[in-house]
Design brief:
Layout: H1 20-38, H2 43-46, H3 49-58, E1 65-68, H4 75-83, H5 118-131, E2 138-143, H6 150-159, E3 166-172, H7 183-193, H8 195-209, H9 215-233, H10 237-241, E4 245-251, H11 255-265, E5 271-277, H12 285-289, H13 316-330, E6 334-338, H14 342-345, H15 348-353, E7 358-360, H16 365-377, E8 381-387, H17 388-391, H18 395-403, E9 410-414, H19 431-436, E10 442-444, H20 449-461, E11 466-469, E12 492-495, E13 499-504, H21 509-521, E14 527-530, E15 533-535, H22 539-548, E16 549-559, H23 564-575, E17 580-586, H24 596-603, H25 607-615
Parallel strand pairs: 1-2, 2-3, 3-5, 4-5, 6-7, 6-8, 8-9, 9-11, 10-11, 13-14, 13-16, 16-17
Antiparallel strand pairs: 10-15, 12-14
Helix pairs in contact: 3-11, 5-6, 7-11, 8-9, 13-20, 16-18, 21-25, 22-23
Length: about 625
């Protein structure tokens, strides 16, 4: 196997050109087998095999810098930089990350996981290179989907000022522009980067500008005429008009063509956009037919493409989806907004039920939030459904555009808390802190599926900014007998006791119940409380607990700083200093990948951890 020759960075330079195509097939087989066992991002990686081979052929690692936007398409890059043996523990605890990671390899230039930032990071690398008079190549790869993020255009605008080489590869898997691939495109790209052509163009411009009075006007006329003609026959004029050189489009699965274009791009003195057309899931029919299904997948049967394991239980996303569709039928002012994740957030069903009230704004969380603010001012009730980790990207918009104007916008925050295999960039452990600091914001967390529905109903009837955060995975069906209606700012007392009070937040309630049961078995009689409202604090309850409780234990799947426990401790310290508050939360660090249950033990959120804390009190 040719793949056996790839054991260290730059081993690809030892291969013959005719070995590249069979190597691409071997890599695809390797990826399909590895992801079928451990899960991961498959379709995006199958679509970038030849592109990655071409990039590695024209670059030298780790001297050259390759920045992947989002990073879930970097598996081939990891294989080519000597990490193929580590794929046995892909996305496992202490194993290979599903994203580029500088701690894994010097060949990974930037830790990624969120989108639209690769051009900014690459531009920073370029400026650092030039200031230090270095000569290495910097390439940023960004997908057409990530180009919907405003940050990408901010970076492109800035990159247009460059006078030194910076390569921006657009990995475009939208095949509607496939007809643009071919001889004419390659010819024009080569022509526009040829030294003779660019030299003549510059000389003519300089000469015309020297002609008094009329010279500059002639130059402007020529430019306008030239641009209008080019608009008709050359794609990518958006980039050209921004001051960037545009090359392509090129067939991203033709390694030789991509290498040729990349070598041309290295000649450009400035920022150059290389437009590469790829097909998601290429080489594995199930992934080709359903690229969304195989974007991020669990273990699956290679032959059938079906996910391995037992029948899936009802998860929180499905509960949200069913409830929001029901509420939308009852209230024609309710609208749903997603940032390119209708499936993941559960809003896809709303698009079927009320398509005119469903909005997918692309990978643009900041825009999604301010768009929702406009909808609210226009008389609608927008529900912004975004993963916790991605909502961080829109903190300014939530604070200024929604909370400052006290607008009725509902935030449905999926994947809150620990999410597992995707690691640091995807753990939703910060939302309670950054949302709780915002004036006018109300924050809730349901203990089970029933409570999520009731909180959504409450949120629709409420008039102001309101967020509901819920975890990934199976919806809790416990506490079926606890169905007290939701009242503003009021917690739910599940068990009354004394001395010790345990207050759980949302997803932590099943664990808190187990802690409570263990303490009862040991002869203690604690109080068990479901917080429900993270903000505002239920101060009435806290005042009541201070009468006959010496200790309050708060448990939340969020960072400690600024979280529910932190704020509870602050209040009790000011008003009831004799009561000790022990916030059990995630301490000040990023949580790596692994199984959620194991991660909870690591960060001190398991039943055993909490009992130990209480015993040591």
């Amino acid at each position: 196997m040719i793949l056996d020759k790839i054991n260290h960075p730059n081993d690809i330079h030892k291969l013959k050109l005719e070995e590249f195509d069979p190597l691409a097939k071997e890599i695809r087989r390797f990826l399909i087998e590895a992801v079928s066992k451990n899960g991961g991002h498959l379709a995006s990686n199958l679509g970038t095999v030849e592109l990655t081979l071409a990039l590695h052929n024209v670059m030298h690692f780790p001297d050259d810098k390759l920045i992947w936007d989002v990073g879930h398409q970097a598996y081939t890059h990891k294989i080519l930089t000597g990490r193929k043996e580590e794929f046995q523990k892909l996305r496992k605890e202490n194993g290979l990350s599903g994203f580029p990671k500088r701690s894994e390899s010097a060949c990974d230039a930037f830790d990624t996981g969120h989108s639209s930032n690769s051009i900014s990071a690459g531009l920073g690398y370029v400026r650092a290179r030039d200031l230090q008079k270095q000569k290495h190549t910097v390439v940023s790869v960004i997908g057409d989907g990530a180009l919907t993020g405003g940050m990408a255009y901010e970076a492109l605008n800035n990159a247009a000022e460059l006078k030194t080489n910076f390569i921006i590869v657009i990995n475009d898997n939208n095949m509607s522009i496939a007809p643009n691939v071919g001889g004419m495109s390659s010819y024009l790209s080569t022509l526009r980067t040829a030294e003779a052509y660019t030299g003549v163009k510059m000389n003519v411009t300089r000469s015309l500008n020297k002609i008094p009075k009329v010279g500059s006007a002639v130059v402007d006329t020529v430019r306008k005429t030239k641009s209008s003609i080019k608009q008709l026959i050359i794609p990518g004029m958006l980039f050209e008009n921004m001051g960037l050189t545009y090359l392509g489009p090129v067939d991203g699965h033709n390694t030789r063509q991509v290498m040729k274009l990349l070598n041309e791009a290295k000649k450009v003195e400035g920022a150059v956009v290389v437009h590469v057309l790829t097909k998601k899931g290429l080489g594995y029919k199930p992934a080709e037919e359903k690229p969304d299904r195989f974007h991020g997948t669990g273990p699956f049967d290679i032959r059938s493409g079906k996910t391995a394991g037992k029948k899936k239980n009802v998860d929180y996303t499905s509960v949200f989806s069913d409830c929001i569709c029901r509420l939308a039928k009852e209230n024609n002012k309710l609208v749903g907004i997603t940032a390119a994740m209708p499936d993941g957030t559960g809003l896809k069903q709303l698009n079927k039920v009320c398509p005119e009230r469903f909005f997918d704004v692309g990978i643009a969380e900041e825009h999604a939030v301010t768009f929702a603010a406009g909808l609210a001012l226009g008389g609608m009730i927008p529900v912004v459904a975004i993963y916790s980790s991605f909502l961080q990207r829109a903190v300014d918009q939530i604070l200024h555009d929604v909370c400052m104007q006290n607008l009725h916008v509902i935030f449905a925050i999926d994947r809150a808390g620990l999410v597992g295999a995707d690691g640091e960039t995807h753990q939703g452990c910060f939302d309670l802190s950054y949302l709780s600091m915002m004036p006018n914001m109300v924050v809730l967390a349901p203990k089970n599926a029933w409570e999520l529905e009731k909180m959504l109903e409450f949120a629709v009837a409420y008039n102001g900014p309101i967020a509901i955060r819920y975890p990934r995975g199976t919806a809790c069906q416990e506490f079926s007998d606890a169905k007290e209606e939701i009242s503003y700012g009021k917690s739910e007392i599940l068990e009354k006791g004394s001395e010790i009070a345990i207050i759980g937040v949302g997803s932590m309630m099943p664990i808190c119940r187990q802690v409570y049961d263990s303490l009862v078995e040991k002869g203690k009689h604690p109080t068990l409380v479901n917080a429900r409202f993270v903000k505002p604090l239920d101060r009435v309850l806290l005042d009541e607990l201070s009468v006959n409780h010496e200790h309050i234990i708060t448990v939340e799947e969020n960072v400690k700083n600024g979280g529910f426990g932190d704020r509870t401790a602050s209040y009790m310290g000011a008003c009831h200093p004799k009561v000790t508050v022990i916030p059990i939360a995630i301490w000040d660090h990023f949580v790596e990948q692994g199984e959620v249950s194991k991660l909870r033990t690591e960060v001190g959120l398991s039943v055993e951890n909490i009992l130990e804390t209480i015993e040591n009190m």
